[in-house]
């Protein structure tokens, strides 16, 4: 019989070990972090081969593992905190799934073994969110009640329930802030609730999966054979803000790394990224392979910096009290410091951090409104989310509209999406219309009835 | 002197008893013996003559002793003249038949012909000599005591129709069979020299469908008997070699759900067998013929009997050599009117840059007129087409295949020995690819005394497939992606160009990357062994023990060398180890009582099989030329799979006969499967397979004039078979994954959800047939009708991944096959010098899925993309988007922009099926939008009927034969056609290119949801229809569906047997030379460009093709010499 802790550990590992192509091909392209010949996302072209991968890899094996162990953990009195941690991770995964695809199989998902459900119904995203919230509350209560008991199979906190409690609260914060457009009242109460539970307070609270070469970072695998250029949008912004992280993110290479390419320059003044304007200079600046490509590159599942940025925004929105600027600066500082965890330990000195903070205040003297500050905060969120957090940044961009991105003007015609609009929801896997047609078709009716990037394809909280 | 004790024994049996105990043979005429006399006798150590005196006393009969211990029984007073029958037995070409049996009728007294085909046998006058030889019609000659006899034997065109091999290797007189059995002589498959001999059965056996491997020589073939019997697996028959079922797992018939990815296929169990070693192939098509095999025989059974060293007394040497040239036929159906470009214009320099991923470009340019244009290389050149012939000439070579076989045999009185060695080397038309096979077979047959008979065989083989094509157009494949997905203007030589860093200028579907940067090698070693021991306890009771062991190891190496397409490169090594063992013991009893006969046996069988595979993959080659896996920097996880299974069985059969006219047979088998054992409830691990059949020789029973109807038989049979369940499906298992940060990982191991219960699949088949021979066997008609119901399908039901499992196994459905098979054999002309034989076969099969589990919903089962099973449709139906039509079936058009702007100035055929009310108005949903069905039935992949016509002419020493065969009806989903159209390459993209073709019909000027139909005035845009600015937005699946109907000139052979006189002065006994040509041309082919026989999958995904290997013709010669 299986070891439930080992299975939980496997679910945590597989979350970032499996194919991450939608994160690059779509999210990194949409968010103008980078460009590759191989990406259909640059042109907002739908590709089932890409769009389905998150769905396929999250439902199996990650959720397969979790759905198998949850009923067993529930009845095992000695594993209450593991049960709570597994529920938290299930929330983490489902939120990513529903933020990508909208309405998805949730309440009936993963029930083939236990209940013989072969064609799970799609739940409304709003209902899924409601359940995710209640799951987090339950988990937090369980963790509080059983605090001394170690979480088994814990890849993040050595079994310590405190870390999981902070992660759960931070997830609740993320969920609360997600709702600003559809239900500001609930957003406020959830953010307050989360803040009171106690969210992550330092980089040490971050869930970081330390990969090894046998269980590599799936992101690194994606990068290995592709010509990943930085996007000119990112380079322009970071050069203008004097961001010391630009040297860590990318470098000028003479050719593809796998063809033996070497760095020829880290002078950011010479960086040329990919530009939508095909008449522009030929791009030279690729992702920094020595930092992001090694198979043992750790994966930041939930950046602490994000928490601070969300809190800063929450203060400005009046959800909680506090000093927004403190949270803003803590976010930037934490992210710059967290880079040292990556291969080659890229270090941003305190002096560099302070210089950056000084140059990039939260309040724009030319436009000292709260909305402008929210733009600045979420643009920092975007810079900090480079690479691993591209999917979360994509959701955050849909939520806030920041950073302000100019869509690719050269997008193709012939699909129902008009040119030049960044897609806001991934299509469902085409196979769903073969295997679960009635449910998928019914779900699709909420998104214009077409399984593509059309103007109706927006998730519930993105109205 | 003998001792004997008899009590009220029939006279004839009394004679037999004496014969058995003495050196004497009796000769008598049936009507001239006291047959009614019952003999009671008890003698000890008495002379036979004295015993005969005693038996014949007062019967009115006497006897006479002749030389050679021959005793003739005659009515008292009749005179017996004796003589020496002397003669020579010749074959149809007047060559001596060596080892023919010459027997005095009604006597065990016999001899065999010597190396000159001659014999001398002292016999009484007026006795009848019966001369027999395998493969020839037995002839009877009256010996009148005068002169030397010359007995010319005629080959039996339906060879071995007297005694055939049936289930479990039992030889039975054909009269006794209540079901249809087809036997094919080994020589028929050797002369055609197909790399896998079973491919040569195409068009020859009614009800047998053969498709050659989709991935070249040595791959797995697709053999289907009487339509599909199962939803899962490959539907391949069980192969039994010399009584032992062999391993025949192909990549295709593994149970992996949704086998959409290609890869290497090292071939099925037949591909390693040397055709020269095959004596006969027997096809047991129906369930009652195969019922004794129980599980595993659901797809029918093919019995292969290999050669023994029997034919030639003394030492015999057979040498066979042949050489076959293979030529690939360029694809037809490509257009050469418009060249490289985009939407009716030439590419610009800017296009060349943004198009770099699309190889050279598309053929949507302007009309060829020899003008200057900007090429893919950025240089100006002459705008003219590159024909398929030119491109094929550049890529392919003439394939050459040579096979040499040498067999030694030695036969003595009590044993025979045969050793054969063979070597095949096939350099395929694809450069760098070849196929090699080496076989060594030892066969040893030994009798120990009269009662113990043994037969041992070992077949050692080694097969090398060097750079074998991968399945389904994977990167080392047919180049079909290049041919369909590049423009028709760029010189192919340009694709071989590289930049200063050695990078290819174009990577997309570049065939030179396949040829230069991918290695795909497989080595298969095999030992196929069997032992067969029989002990005759009495004349009526026999014990038989058969054991077999089949051991196959297959090593594979797949290397992608680093380049600008494959990145840092990868190496995959794999090792597959398959073992199958089989032990069977049987007890046979047969006896005749007056008019009644009984033949019965019972036995038990133990079968075990293991399949283990190990796959290692490494990426990042540090040395770009080394193929050692240690040369990689990153090892990807090792994949291991080790399913194993066992089954135990008991079986029995009894046949009752009446007057050799009527036979009734019942069989039974019970199988116990390890694969069905489970710790969970709901599983029964055994199943019972019964069958019964009847044969009635009505021509004899009704005393029909044999000059008109020489033979007439009625067959009636019903039987049941099943499939061996897949192992490791009944329980949930777990596996360890990588240890990360000191914590091991664990995962569910099952790729499919364990079902809550599982039953083996069963197939029940009823068969009615007749066999009629007219005019002294000049004309033969064999008809069989069957109704086959298969149920309890173990389906790998693909599940939405959100259920937590990608698939499950379920007893999920049933289906029915109904069919008719006809075989017509006519000897049109037969003189001593000239003979013309015509053989026609016809098979019609209708398949329909009758039931599917509710769990599958109305979506049915998707086997492979558009190939599905749904209730009420045939298994293997094509579903997808259809062209939009109005209530009267007229095509409906849609207004689109020809150039990608909002200006809707062109038309394309709309897609998606509408439903209509009684008034012919399309149905709408509540919101007012059209109800559109994108899952329309587009046809079945199964042919309506198939048939073959074989003509054989024999003139003196010459023999000419040719085979025409075909399939009629049935559809193919040709995905290659979609891409050929997408890139503007196929002929069908020409319609409307010049912008002047305005299709008649109605066009939608409104929106999709709220259409407004008016008479069309807009010109048709094939570019938008097939390409739609790269999005295939207006391409309907129906456009890829074509009729599969074809009539093919399959093969022609011309053979010459050297006359005996020419060879008299040489040690050569016989020599034959023949010329062969295969797959010459199509009389009819409905599918443009591709070969209608190709398919990505030989499993249930059959019918979906992404453009397989091009059709190839073969020409060759064959030389057989016996010493």
Describe this structure in words.
The complex is a heterodimer of chains A (about 475) and B (about 1100). In chain A, about 50% of the residues lie in helices and about 5% in strands. Chain A has 3 domains: about 1-210 and about 405-465, Serine Threonine Protein Phosphatase 5, Tetratricopeptide repeat (Alpha Horseshoe), CATH 1.25.40.390; about 230-290, no CATH class; about 305-385, Four Helix Bundle (Hemerythrin (Met), subunit A), CATH 1.20.120. Chain A has a 3-stranded antiparallel beta sheet. Chain A has a two-stranded antiparallel sheet with strand order 1-5. Chain A has helices spanning about 5-15, 20-30, 50-75, 80-100, 110-115, 125-145, 160-180, 185-195, 220-225, 230-240, 245-250, 290, 305-315, 325-340, 350-360, 370-385, 390-400, 430-435, 435-445, and strands at about 35, 105, 120-125, 210, 230, 250-255, 265, 285, 300. With about 475 residues, chain A is mainly alpha-helical. Among the domains of chain B are: about 1-75, Phage tail protein beta-alpha-beta fold; about 80-150, Sandwich (Immunoglobulin-like), CATH 2.60.40.4130; about 335-385, no CATH class. Helices cover about 5% and strands about 45% of the residues of chain B. Chain B has 12 helices and 64 strands. Chain B has a 22-stranded antiparallel β-barrel. Chain B is elongated and about 115 Å long. Mean pLDDT of chain B is about 85; it is low at about 250-260. The chains are: A mainly alpha (about 475), B mainly beta (about 1100).
């Amino acid at each position: 019989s299986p070891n439930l802790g080992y299975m939980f550990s496997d679910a945590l590992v597989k979350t970032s070990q499996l194919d991450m192509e939608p994160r690059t091909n779509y999210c990194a392209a949409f968010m103008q972090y980078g460009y590759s010949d191989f990406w259909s996302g640059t042109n907002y072209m739908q590709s089932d081969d890409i769009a389905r991968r998150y769905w396929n890899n999250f439902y199996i094996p990650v959720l397969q593992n979790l759905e198998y162990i949850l009923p067993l953990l529930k009845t095992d009195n000695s594993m209450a905190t593991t049960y709570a941690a597994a529920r938290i991770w299930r929330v983490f995964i489902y939120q990513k799934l529903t933020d990508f695809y909208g309405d998805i199989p949730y309440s009936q998902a993963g029930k083939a073994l236990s209940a013989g459900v072969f064609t799970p119904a799609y739940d409304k995203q709003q209902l899924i969110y409601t359940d995710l919230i209640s799951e987090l509350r339950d988990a937090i209560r369980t963790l509080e009640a059983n605090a001394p008991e170690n979480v088994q199979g814990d890849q993040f906190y050595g079994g310590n329930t405190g870390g999981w409690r902070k992660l759960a609260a931070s997830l609740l914060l993320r969920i609360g802030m997600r709702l600003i457009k559809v239900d500001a009242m609930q957003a406020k109460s959830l953010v307050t609730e989360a803040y009171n539970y106690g969210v992550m307070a330092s980089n040490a609270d971050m869930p970081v999966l330390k990969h090894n070469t046998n269980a590599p970072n799936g992101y690194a695998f994606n990068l290995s054979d592709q010509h990943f250029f930085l996007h000119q949008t990112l380079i322009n912004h970071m050069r203008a803000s004097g961001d010391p992280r630009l040297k860590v993110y990318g470098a000028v290479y003479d050719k593809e790394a796998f063809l033996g390419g070497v760095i020829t320059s880290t002078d950011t003044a010479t960086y040329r990224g990919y530009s939508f304007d095909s008449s522009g200079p030929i791009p030279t600046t690729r992702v920094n392979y020595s930092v992001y490509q090694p198979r043992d590159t750790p994966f930041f599942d939930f950046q602490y910096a994000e928490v601070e940025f969300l809190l800063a925004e929450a203060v400005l929105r009046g959800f909680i009290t506090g000093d927004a600027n403190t949270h803003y600066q803590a976010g930037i500082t934490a992210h710059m410091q967290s880079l040292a965890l990556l291969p080659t330990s890229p270090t941003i000195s305190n002096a560099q951090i302070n210089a950056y903070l000084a140059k990039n205040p939260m309040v724009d003297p030319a436009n000292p409104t709260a909305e402008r500050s929210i733009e600045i905060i979420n643009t920092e969120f975007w810079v900090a989310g480079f690479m691993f957090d591209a999917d979360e940044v994509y959701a955050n961009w849909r939520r806030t509209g920041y950073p302000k991105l100019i869509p690719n003007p050269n997008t193709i015609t012939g699909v129902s999406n008009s040119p030049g609009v960044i897609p806001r929801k991934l299509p469902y896997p085409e196979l769903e219309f073969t295997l679960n047609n009635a449910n998928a078709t019914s779900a699709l009716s909420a998104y214009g009835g077409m399984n593509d990037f059309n103007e109706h394809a927006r998730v519930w909280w993105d109205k | 002197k003998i001792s004997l004790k008899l009590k009220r024994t029939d006279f004839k049996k009394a004679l037999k008893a004496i014969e058995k105990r003495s050196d004497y043979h009796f000769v008598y005429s049936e009507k001239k013996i006291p047959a009614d006399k019952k003999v009671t006798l008890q003698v000890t150590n008495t002379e036979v003559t004295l015993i005969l005196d005693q038996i014949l006393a007062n019967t009115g009969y006497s006897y006479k002793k002749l030389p050679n211990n021959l005793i003739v029984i005659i009515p008292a007073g009749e005179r017996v003249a004796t003589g020496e029958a002397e003669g020579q037995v010749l074959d149809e070409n007047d060559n001596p038949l060596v080892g023919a049996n010459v027997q005095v009728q009604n006597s065990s007294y016999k001899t065999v012909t010597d190396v000159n085909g001659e014999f001398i046998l002292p016999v009484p006058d007026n006795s009848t000599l019966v001369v027999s030889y395998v493969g020839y019609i037995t002839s009877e000659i009256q010996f009148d005591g005068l002169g030397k006899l010359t007995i010319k034997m005629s080959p039996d065109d339906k060879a071995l129709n007297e005694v055939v091999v049936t289930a479990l290797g039992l030889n039975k007189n054909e009269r006794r069979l209540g079901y249809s059995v087809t036997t094919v002589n080994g020589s028929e498959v050797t002369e055609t020299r197909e790399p896998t001999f079973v491919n040569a059965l195409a068009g020859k056996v009614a009800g047998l469908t053969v498709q050659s491997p989709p991935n070249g020589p040595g791959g797995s073939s697709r053999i289907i008997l009487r339509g599909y019997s199962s939803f899962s697996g490959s539907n391949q028959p069980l192969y039994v070699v010399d009584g032992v079922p062999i391993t025949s797992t192909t990549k295709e018939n593994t149970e992996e759900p949704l086998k959409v990815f290609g890869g290497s296929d090292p071939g099925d169990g037949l591909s390693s067998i040397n055709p020269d070693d095959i004596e006969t192939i027997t096809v047991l098509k129906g369930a009652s013929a195969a019922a004794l095999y129980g599980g595993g025989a659901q797809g029918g059974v093919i019995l292969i009997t290999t050669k023994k060293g029997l034919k030639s007394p003394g030492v015999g040497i057979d040498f066979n050599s042949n050489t076959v040239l293979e030529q690939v036929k360029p694809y037809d159906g490509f257009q050469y009117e418009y060249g490289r470009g985009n939407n009716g214009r030439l590419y610009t320099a800017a296009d060349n840059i943004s198009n770099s991923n699309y190889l050279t470009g598309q053929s949507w340019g302007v009309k060829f007129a020899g003008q200057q244009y900007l090429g893919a290389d950025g240089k100006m050149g002459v705008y003219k087409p590159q024909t398929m012939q030119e491109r094929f000439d550049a890529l392919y070579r003439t394939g050459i295949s040579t096979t040499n076989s040498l067999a030694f045999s030695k036969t003595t009185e009590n044993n025979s020995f045969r050793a054969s060695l063979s070597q095949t080397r096939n350099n395929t038309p694809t450069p760098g690819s070849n196929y090699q096979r080496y076989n060594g077979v030892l066969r040893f047959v030994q009798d120990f005394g009269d009662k113990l008979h043994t037969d041992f065989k070992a077949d050692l083989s080694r097969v090398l497939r060097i750079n074998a094509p991968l399945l389904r157009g994977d990167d080392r494949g047919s180049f079909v992606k290049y041919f369909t997905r590049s423009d028709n203007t760029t010189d192919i030589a340009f694709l071989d160009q590289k930049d200063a860093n050695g990078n290819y200028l174009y990577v997309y579907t570049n065939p030179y990357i396949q040829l230069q940067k991918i290695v795909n090698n497989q080595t298969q070693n095999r030992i196929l062994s069997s032992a067969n021991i029989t002990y005759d306890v009495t004349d009526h009771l026999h014990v038989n023990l058969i054991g077999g062991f089949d051991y196959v190891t297959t090593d594979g190496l797949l290397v992608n060398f680093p380049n600008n397409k494959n990145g840092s490169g990868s190496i995959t090594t794999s090792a597959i180890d398959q073992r199958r063992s089989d032990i069977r013991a049987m007890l046979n009893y047969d006896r005749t009582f007056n008019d009644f006969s009984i033949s019965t046996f019972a036995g038990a069988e133990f079968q075990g099989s293991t399949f283990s595979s190990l796959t290692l993959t490494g990426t990042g080659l540090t040395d770009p030329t080394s193929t050692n896996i240690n040369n990689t920097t990153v090892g990807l996880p090792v994949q291991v799979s080790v399913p194993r299974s066992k089954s135990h069985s008991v079986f029995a059969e009894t046949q009752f006969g009446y007057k050799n006219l009527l036979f009734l047979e019942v069989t039974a088998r019970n199988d116990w499967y390890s694969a069905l054992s489970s710790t969970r409830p709901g599983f029964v691990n055994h199943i019972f397979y019964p069958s019964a059949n009847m044969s009635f020789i009505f021509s004899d029973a009704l005393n029909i004039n044999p000059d008109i109807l020489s033979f007439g038989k009625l067959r009636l049979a019903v039987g049941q078979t099943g499939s061996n369940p897949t192992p490791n499906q009944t329980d949930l298992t777990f596996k360890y994954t990588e240890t990360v940060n000191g914590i091991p990982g664990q995962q569910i191991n099952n790729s499919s959800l364990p079902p809550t219960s599982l039953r083996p699949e069963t197939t029940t088949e009823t068969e009615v047939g007749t066999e009629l021979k007219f005019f002294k066997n000049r004309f033969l008609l064999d008809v069989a009708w069957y109704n086959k119901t298969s149920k309890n399908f173990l389906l790998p039901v693909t599940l939405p991944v959100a259920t937590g499992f990608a698939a499950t196994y379920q007893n999920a459905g049933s289906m029915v096959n109904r069919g008719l098979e006809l075989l017509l054999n006519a000897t049109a002309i037969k003189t001593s010098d000239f003979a013309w034989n015509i053989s026609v076969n016809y098979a019609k099969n209708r398949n329909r899925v009758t039931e599917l589990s509710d769990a599958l919903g109305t979506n049915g089962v998707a086997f492979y993309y558009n190939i599905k099973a749904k209730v009420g449709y045939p298994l293997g139906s094509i579903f997808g988007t259809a062209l939009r039509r109005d209530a009267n079936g007229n095509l409906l058009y849609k207004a689109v922009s020809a150039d990608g702007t909002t200006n809707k100035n062109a038309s394309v055929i709309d897609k998606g099926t509408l439903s209509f009310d009684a008034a012919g108005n399309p149905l709408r949903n509540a919101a007012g939008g059209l109800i559109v069905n994108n899952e329309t039935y587009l046809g079945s992949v199964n042919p309506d009927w198939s048939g073959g016509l074989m003509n054989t002419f024999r003139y003196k020493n010459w023999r000419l034969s040719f085979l025409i065969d075909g399939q009629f009806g049935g559809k193919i989903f040709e995905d290659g056609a979609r891409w050929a159209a997408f890139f503007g390459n196929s002929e069908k993209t020409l319609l409307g290119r010049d912008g002047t073709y305005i299709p008649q019909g109605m066009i939608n000027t409104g929106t999709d949801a709220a259409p407004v139909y008016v008479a069309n005035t807009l010109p048709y845009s094939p570019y938008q229809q097939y390409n739609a600015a790269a999005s295939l937005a207006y391409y309907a699946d129906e456009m890829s569906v074509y009729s599969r109907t074809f009539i093919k000139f399959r093969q022609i052979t011309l053979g010459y047997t050297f006359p005996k006189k020419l060879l008299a002065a040489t040690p050569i006994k016989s020599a034959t030379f023949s010329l062969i040509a295969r797959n010459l041309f199509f009389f009819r082919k409905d599918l443009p460009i591709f070969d209608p026989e190709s398919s990505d999958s030989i499993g249930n995904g059959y019918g979906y093709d992404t453009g397989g290997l091009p059709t190839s013709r073969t020409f060759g010669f064959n030389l057989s010499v016996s010493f």
